[in-house]
Amino acid sequence: MINVATAVMLSQYKGWADQLFFDSLRELPVQELSRERAGPIKTMIGVLNHIYVIDRIWQAHLQHRDHGFTSRQALPYPDLAELCQAQREVDDWYVAWSSQQSESSLKEVLDFVFVSGNPGSMPAGSMLLHVVNHATYHRGWLVQMYFEIPAMPPLTDLSVYLTECQTWPAGNC
After folding, report:
1. Is the peptide bond before 154 cis (omega within 30 degrees of 0)?
2. Considering the domain boundaries, does residue 173 fall inside one?
3. Which end of the chain is flanked by fewer CB atoms within 10 Å, N or C?
4. What are the distances in angstroms from CA 145 to CA 36, 47, 167?
5. How many whole angstroms separate alpha carbon 86 and alpha carbon 84?
6. Given this model, what pLDDT does residue 74 score?
7. How confident is the model at residue 75 (pLDDT cuts 50, 70, 90)?
């Protein structure tokens, strides 16, 4: 189980890494975002939207409400600038939410329903861990897509964040 300080740090890290990717993606030729590649999610903009949709789904679970998504592959924001703004908003929400938690609220087990319709139960802190881990996993897919361009992806390792940025948003981070 995670504590409040770790929850805050992980949510700040996620926001930093997400924005670092968006900043880098703005430098690529625009057609690279929608160019189809191998894999279950074929485009960079598709992967970014998937991360965003999952963030919103788990946000809804944490808020004890319906999320309204019928697919994890939804593409609510085909435009990079609009998606960047929406992602920033949800990342800011996770930072604020984490800051408002207590040790006991992070341990609270919440019931929810997966998009598939299957029921689930999970502690709130574990939900946050899933959100952070899920985004990290899919940023790895984006890294592979960068190499196919070829282009150099941003470095978003947790160790880079911890040694260079300590808090997000701040300075150049």
Report:
1. no
2. no
3. N
4. 10, 10, 28
5. 6
6. 83
7. confident
| C-alpha–C-alpha distance, residues 127 and 90, integer Å | 15
Residue 169 counted as domain residue: no
44-62 vs 4-25: helix axis angle to the nearest 10?
150
**pLDDT at residue 42 in the model:** 96
pTM value is 0.93
Query: Residue 97: its pLDDT value, please?
Result: 98
**Sequence-ordered alpha helix ranges (H) in the chain:** 4-25, 31-34, 44-62, 80-99, 103-107, 124-148, 158-164
- By residue range, what is the domain housing residue 120? 4-164
The CATH number linked to 27 is: 1.20.120.450
Q: What angle do CA 152, 44, 171 make, to 5 degrees?
A: 55
Residue 48 has pLDDT above 60, yes or no: yes
